[in-house]
Amino acid sequence: MEAIIDRLGRPIRDLRISVTDRCNFRCAYCMPKEVFGDDYVFLPKNELLSFEEIERFAKLFALLGVKKLRLTGGEPLMRRDLPKLIEKLMKIEGIEDIGLTTNGVLLKQYAQSLYDAGLRRLNMSLDALDPDIFGKLNGRGIKPDLILSNIDYAQKVGFEIKVNMVVQKGINEGEIIPMAAYFKERDITLRFIEFMDVGNDNGWSFEKVVTKKEIYDMISAVHDIEPADEDYYGEVAKRYRYLDNKAQVGFITSVSESFCSTCTRSRLSSDGKLYTCLFASEGFDLRELIRSGMTDAELLDVITGIWERRGDRYSDERTEQTAQYRKKIGMSYIGG
Ligand SMILES: C[S@@+](CC[C@H](N)C(=O)[O-])C[C@H]1O[C@@H](n2cnc3c(N)ncnc32)[C@H](O)[C@@H]1O
Ligand code: SF4
């Protein structure tokens, strides 16, 4: 079946599923400690979508054109029995690819069972190699060595790994070159993510963004790189290959070069709200509908209607004003 198309002609292709709103890190750009303190109330279990509900939604989205699923969070490895969910999702007709985004802390524990469940691709987040910088950034004092050794372990298990680094001005710019060298040597693609104004409490401003151009200039002053071909329509990262080995670097340029015009992504929060943009203010409560006993045909109609009305292009329209004053949902809730 042809994918459903939104008002700007964009097909639905990806569904990002947040499986938990909890996390074992407190990255200031995502879950600042001042907001997500000891008394923060996370969603109770009965408000999270069950695995059966997630599977049913994934099947419905696949019928509408979704080919790729990404599991995220919060920290997805904190959701109990995640490999069981992956096993179910792997069997869905039409789904060609499943990825998982993780901070990697719990990876050693779960890598083998995730692999056995059929998962092959991991995006791991790591913002610095310097222990002090990384310890501060993750808000928990976790050292990069743990993540690095878990990356090595997961590679040995057989995973294809990409590493994501969020760059913030004055915080971890100095880590760009060491990170590039480290992952180049290991043939792992490193993607630089521009600091984004997700949520309303991460202190974002344009001045704190290190743009793709700035990062590109730093890397190309040290390494010879050339543009790599786009892998598929709507690929978010602009990738470059090193001329002297197989590794690549990528840039996720939501701020300096928005990619709304080819955005094919839908997002399901851990409590079952559907968002058609990472920077949306409101989601559509699909959990209520699934729990009210709607049939598959009725749910398909609702989801189709939401996508067909979609006209989001927030990054195209971003200004200092919208970034500051527009209400936006948080990254840990929707999963990035
Ligand atoms: C919300 S996390 C969820 C998955 C997992 N906990 C992790 O960190 O990989 C997904 C991705 O969003 C990125 N992220 C979170 N807040 C961000 C922000 N304000 N700007 C850019 N990227 C952000 C994280 O670095 C991570 O790579
Ligand atoms: S970016 Fe990931 S690891 Fe960091 S606080 Fe957010 S959900 Fe947790």
Strand-helix topology:
Layout: E1 14-18, H1 51-64, E2 68-72, H2 82-90, E3 97-102, H3 107-116, E4 121-125, H4 131-137, H5 144-157, E5 160-167, H6 176-185, E6 189-194, H7 212-220, E7 225-227, E8 238-242, E9 248-252, E10 265-268, E11 273-275, E12 284-285, H8 286-291, H9 296-309, H10 314-317, H11 320-325, H12 331-334
Parallel strand pairs: 1-2, 1-10, 2-3, 3-4, 4-5, 5-6, 6-9
Antiparallel strand pairs: 7-8, 8-9, 10-11, 11-12
The structure holds S-adenosylmethionine and iron/sulfur cluster.
- Contiguous uncertain segments of 5+ residues: none
- pLDDT averaged residue by residue: 92
Q: Care to count the β-strands? A: 12
Q: Give the N-to-C terminal Cα separation.
A: 28 Å
Instruction: State the share of residues found in helices, binned by percent.
Output: 25-40%
Q: Report the biggest beta sheet as strand number plus sense, adding barrel if it closes.
A: 12 strands, mixed
The main sheet orders its strands as 7-8-9-6-5-4-3-2-1-10-11-12
Strand percentage lies at: 15-25%
Supply Rg: 19 Å
The unique ligands bound to this protein are:
S-adenosylmethionine, iron/sulfur cluster
Which series of helices and strands comes N to C?
Answer: EHEHEHEHHEHEHEEEEEEHHHHH
- SS element count, helices: 12
Query: Which structural category do the helix and sheet elements fall into?
Result: alpha/beta
Shape: globular
What can you see in these coordinates?
The protein is of the alpha/beta class. It has twelve helices and twelve strands. A twelve-stranded mixed beta sheet has the order 7-8-9-6-5-4-3-2-1-10-11-12. The structure holds S-adenosylmethionine and iron/sulfur cluster. The site of S-adenosylmethionine has 21 residues, from strand 3, strand 5 and helix 12.
